[in-house]
Amino acid sequence: MTKHITDCTILNNGVTMPWLGIGTYKAKGKEVQQAVETALEVGYRSIDTASVYGNEEEVGQAIASSGVARNELFVTTKLWNDDQGFDSTLRAFEASQKALGLNVIDLYLIHWPGRDQYKETWRAFERLYSEGSVRAIGVSNFQVHHLRDLIDEGGTVPAVNQVELHPGLIQQELQDFCGEQGIQLEAWSPIMKGKLNQDSTLKGLAQKYGKTPAQIILRWDIQNQIVTIPKSVTPERIRENADIFDFELTPDELRQIDALDADKRTGPHPDQLFWD
């Protein structure tokens, strides 16, 4: 049983990554800096950002002022679509390094697969990894066929695949494939932007355990071996999202939540998001 906010999974290259982190999507300026500072005070040790969020600098400032030792933190950022390609990836990574104020980034992800550049981009990721600029490399929003493309090249198997995943979108085939390949699955939008808060199954379990529906979902993630990064800028919600380590759902309850799967997305389907 995962019992503490600093408990970790072990990635396929031996690097440890906390099961719970704080997401920073659409959070800007002082708001995101204060959110990260609050999260670190509460005990979070994993922070997820991306170049397109426009907040890497503030995240870096919060880390620098926190007093938390660098080796206790796990920092993820992502390469945006417009920067895909070998040379452009290396330049974009340097910009993220500078903005975050970090020499080494713990996890670097390709944000979306796009149409046809991700293999070239992955070669740049492998260089960054071999140079020691990143501790682990992975992808985001990759479907099974995208992952097979990379794996068939015979290079580095992604350490992480961060995707939209919640009880309304379980993606069982993707879960099974990542499990077989040793790729750690990570959930963005884990509570489906609050759209599941009124579900009767989740409300019933919340009442039983003295928790909120969101806390039930986050616990479901972790018990399914899924890293989760709920986003919030509200101190009370940041604390609430971390208060999921004092109870455990039963196997039957996990199956009840699985049954809520409706293949519903809050974001675009990766096979439909392209750019020029």
TrEMBL record:
Residues 20-261 form the NADP-dependent oxidoreductase domain. It comes from the Bacteria. InterPro entries: AKR, Aldo/ket_reductase_CS, NAD(P)_OxRdtase_dom_sf, NADP_OxRdtase_dom. Keywords: NADP, Oxidoreductase. Belongs to the aldo/keto reductase family. This is Glyoxal reductase. It comes from Paenibacillus silvae.
